[in-house]
Amino acid sequence: MRESFEIPADLRLSRCPTKQVGLSFPIPLDRRIDDLCDLANDEGAATSRKELVAALILDAPSQPKKLAALIKAYRKAAARDAAVSPVGEENILRFQPPKPGRRPKLSPGSQQA
Question: Which residues have C-beta within 8 Å of that of residue 40, sequence separation ≥ 6?
Fold first, then answer.
């Protein structure tokens, strides 16, 4: 049975009840999420993968034609299109396995080493 929710429309999204979702991404996109978090953190955002993906979903267009165009572009994209840094002359993307455990959450104003 599904629960119904009433959420005040002015409540900040970050304070709304959450729902667990299971998602998997192609490895180049998974790495892009980490790289984008690092870029945001370099600017003092102190963000997480969860918050980054939520922000991107919030910014997604709600116009059907624009949304369909994004989906079609994704379907045609190559692994290189997910790279934040340019692909080297070898034309190969290399990925090191992530360190075990959760990524550390930075506090606002902290610098990542």
Answer: 47, 52
**93 within 8 A of 87, measured Cβ to Cβ:** yes
Report angle CA 65, 8, 47 to the nearest 5 degrees.
Answer: 65
Q: Using one digit for the tens of pLDDT, what is the confidence trace for 103-113?
A: 665 555 444 43
CB-side neighbour CA atoms (13 Å) of 112 = 18
Structure-block tokens of residue 64? 């059907």
Q: Give the chain's length.
A: 113
Asked if residues 81 and 69 have their Cβ atoms less than 8 Å apart, the reply is no
User: pTM (2 decimals)?
Assistant: 0.79
